[in-house]
Amino acid sequence: MTIWDPLNGRWHAEDGEPTANIDVRKREVKFIRDGTVGSLHFKGEDQVWLELGKYTYAARHESGILRWDNGEVWTLGREATRAVPAATMPTSKSTAKNASKYATAPPRALAKFFTGIQAGEPGEYRVLQGVVFKKPGADPTTDKGIRKVQAVGSTMRTTGNIFTGKNESEWVELDSPDTPGWVLVQGPGVGMPGPLLQKVEPNQEAPFIMRTTSPKAIIKDPDTDEQTLRERKFVIQPSASMTEVKAWLSLLFKLNVSKLRILKPEDQRPSTGNFVVWHNRGDDEFVPDSWSVKEAGFRDGDLMEYTCFGFDDSSDSDDCAGISSPTRLLKQSTV
What we know:
mainly beta, Ubiquitin-like (UB roll), 3 domains
């Protein structure tokens, strides 16, 4: 006998309707409605994982109750009173309607509203903004998480398994037996705009880590009263266009992407070594939007300077206020 033997038997949804039979010895879950079979796996002492097609669902076992990752609850029924074959289930109008609804449902719909875990291939993810949000442990449904600083451009090993959480947040599972957990790829609610991690693809060109500064770059350190530069780093592919660079700058500093212009590297500007005020700079000082980072002459680690026409730091509604479109662009570029 194992600690998981109590899972054997017929399980019911919250409305009392039989939903599935679990066989621990065979490690399978067989749905009553149409006979679909899923593979059952165990983690720790109270977590189970159901593989159903290409999807994986998580649940916690608590004394005859399975609490799934979407809030659905299954209870273990008594065979003496609930062991009714699917073909002879009560034929009330509501039961008949449900049976009809699930008879032709795709496998993912059998468990009603699961968000679930999608299996993936092991691989690495790259840190894009210097911050990582981690849910420690094997259960990605927990609300407990920690924020930690991690170097921009550094990578971490993952199993490739993806969990879709609240508000369509995306989490990937770490490949670390000693310190298991899930890290946020992208999603709202953490105070960081845009994607936080990027999947490292095979044979992908080595990215550049660029430096840039806030439009309000000179700030006062409240502890030392010294003036410092507020510098940020971001990851960009050498083949990326200036449009994608603008999207990053817009997200980092909440600027209007349509008001941004990227300056050429300093050694390529006609004004270098001459005193030229900002508003007198000509078009030959800036990089065309269609050019790539590499084509413009930037190298890994360079400082990327820009102008934001219309910026007024005395107004909260200036022309350089951030807009939402860069988020969509970067989400697409990191998939």
